[in-house]
Amino acid sequence: MSPNRMVKKLSRLLKVSWREQPTRFDIEAMQANVRRIGLVIRVRWILVGALAMFSVLASSAYAAEYPWGTLWPNMVVPAVALALVLVYNTFYQLNYRRMGNIAIFGHAQLLLDAAVVTVLVYYSGGVHSWFWAMYSLFVLEAAFILPKRRDAWFIAGAGAVLAGCVTWGEYLGVLPHVEMPYVPDPLNQDFTFVSVRYLWQVTVMAGTATIATLMMSVIREREAELAASSIVDDTTGLYDRRYFLRALGSEVLRAEHHGRTPHVLLVDIDRFGEFNRILGLELGDEMLRQVASSVVAALGNGSEHTSNVASRYGGEEFALLLAERSDGGMPTVQDALNLAEGLRVAVEELRLHDAGVTLSIGVASYPENGSSADTLLDSADHALNEAKTVGGNAVRVGD
User: Fold this and answer.
1) Of 231, 252, 276, which residue sits at a domain end?
2) Considering 72, 261, 304, 312, which has the largest number of Cβ atoms within 10 A of its Cβ?
3) How far apart are CA 12 and CA 310, in angstroms?
4) Rounded CA gap, 110 and 141, in Å?
5) Residues 320 and 358 in one domain
6) Quick one: which H or E segment has residue 297?
7) Is residue 217 domain-shared with residue 251, that is, in the same domain?
8) Which helix (H) or strand (E) holds 347?
9) Total domains, the chain
10) What is the pLDDT of residues 336-385, one digit of tens each?
């Protein structure tokens, strides 16, 4: 395998969504993942505060019956571990927006958390410690912020291994047992107790991973349904104006960084009010659906698999974003004109009750006609008005 291919393969493994030129779907997935990581970072600050408060209260309670000289050796290393949490969580707080799209970024913070908890488990009684339950919190976080279901199982497995290192390390005498108040020490050498206790820990972590992945699957499916229902026009089944504007903004950013050449087509049905007045609103809606079908066919039905978008822009107006050819290449101005002319001809041949409509189409290309979403839309709108001025059923290009 060549070094270049190895680098690309490694990049695919590390990143949540990777392409040499990421699509808007990749960008939106990355942005959503970054928001989730930010939420987990905020939750970690709360957990650190809760642990600190618990440590102070528990130490005060123990100190009422046990001398500080017995307690403080058990507290030094956990205190250092919590200080480490403060350091790396600060690092994550400052960098998660820039690095949140890297999958290993999320894995690393959860593994660091698990390592810190392992230190707490060991210095709070090992097999007797209460802190092992925190591994389950990290499994929940993994299901929430990591992109694949197996990631939650990976964190659950890591927690089980780390807990096992302490439990069985003490049992086998590899790790010296740390004595704690109120703990019957001989139990850490009882095989049955250690086995049952560790089996229970593994069972809880596996159960947490199962429940978390199932619940997050349902939540993400529901999120996708809500997103689809809020961005799709009921009459035509095309994306709505809001989604088109968001997609266009993402595509312009992509063009700025990767030399892409997106094109905007604004399409208006000529004299559609007259069509509705003569044939009625029901046939008017049917004609909108027919035109929408022609738009999708002309665009190549690629809006779900490429960065191309077909949308109902408002009323009898449609907007198209042409960002990729069917072969994955970058479209040219001529490709955009061919698309517009093909759509114009296809709609001209539509008939409902022997009545038809025509289209006026304005085309704008990046960067010739605009270097931002607003300037591209303004240029396409100006071209559309020119097409209507000459009587409609025409295609014009922006200045």
Assistant:
1) 231
2) 312
3) 29
4) 8
5) yes
6) helix 281-299
7) no
8) helix 333-348
9) 2
10) 999 999 999 999 999 988 899 999 999 999 999 999 999 999 999 999 99
